[in-house]
């Protein structure tokens, strides 16, 4: 597989637990193919674009959306799945369900800056929401994360407040929807192959082998 190149676009939403699991499984798959030259890009998707920018209590939101019993069953299942891939999903009753537009803008900026590791930024967004139970709709939280990956916190704070590049992110989301992306995680490989869902790493490895062999 030496010298083979793959471009993998990861379509996800930081509030999606399966997207976090999918990230872990992708990392595991790529670790099994160190000879692949892989370029990973993060693409935006919003599970709930109509969520208010202030967000709301996550537990209340889940219970309203899925029903109390189903919500608890889902969360319990996710905690078990998380343990299998090294994610300790948190359960703070005060945790927020945020609007993720600003988080996606931050990730867009990270991906556009050659000096910033967008994968690290994505990891910190996932961890903040799912493990630390922080509100990633809060610009102060996002600015801190930006600083942790090497971005200028003050500059990020100002640009987030001004809504800079929100239109670009919305356009990207709309474009991906026009291509048929209706759920996440979704992986687009070399611009033409789609892999839906948080597939086990062995499935991803098999797919990458087939694509790289072409």
Q: Could you characterize what this model shows?
A:
This protein has 214 residues and is α+β, with helices and mostly antiparallel strands. The chain has a single domain (5-213), classed as Glutaredoxin (3-Layer(aba) Sandwich). Helix content is 53%, strand content 13%. α4 (101-112) packs antiparallel against α5, α4 (101-112) packs across α8 (166-178) and α6 (139-148) runs antiparallel to α7. It is globular. The relative contact order is 0.20. The mean pLDDT is 96.
Which secondary structure elements does this structure contain, and how are they paired or packed?
Elements: E1 5-12, H1 17-31, E2 37-44, E3 56-57, H2 58-66, H3 68-85, E4 96-97, H4 101-112, H5 118-130, H6 139-148, H7 153-162, H8 166-178, E5 186-189, E6 193-196, H9 201-213
Parallel strand pairs: 1-2
Antiparallel strand pairs: 1-5, 3-4, 5-6
Helix pairs in contact: 1-3, 1-9, 2-3, 4-5, 4-8, 6-7
């Amino acid at each position: 597989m030496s010298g083979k190149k793959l471009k993998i676009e990861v379509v996800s939403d930081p509030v999606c637990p399966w997207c976090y699991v999918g990230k872990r499984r992708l990392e595991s798959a790529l670790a099994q193919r160190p000879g692949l030259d892989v370029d990973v890009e993060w693409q935006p998707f919003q599970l709930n674009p109509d969520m208010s920018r202030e967000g709301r209590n996550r537990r209340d939101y889940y219970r309203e959306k899925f029903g109390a019993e189903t919500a608890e069953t889902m969360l319990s299942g996710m905690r078990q799945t998380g343990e299998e891939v090294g994610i300790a999903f948190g359960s703070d009753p005060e945790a927020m369900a945020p609007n993720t537009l600003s988080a996606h803008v931050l990730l867009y900026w990270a991906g556009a800056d050659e000096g910033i590791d967008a994968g690290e930024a994505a990891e910190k967004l996932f961890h903040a929401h799912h493990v630390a139970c922080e509100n990633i709709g809060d610009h102060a939280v996002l600015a801190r994360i930006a600083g942790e990956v090497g971005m200028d916190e003050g500059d990020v704070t100002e640009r987030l407040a001004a809504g800079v590049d929100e239109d670009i992110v919305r356009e990207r989301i709309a474009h991906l929807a026009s291509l048929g992306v209706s759920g996440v995680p979704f992986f687009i490989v070399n611009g033409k192959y789609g892999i839906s869902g948080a597939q086990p790493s062995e499935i991803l490895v098999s797919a990458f082998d087939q694509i790289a062999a072409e």
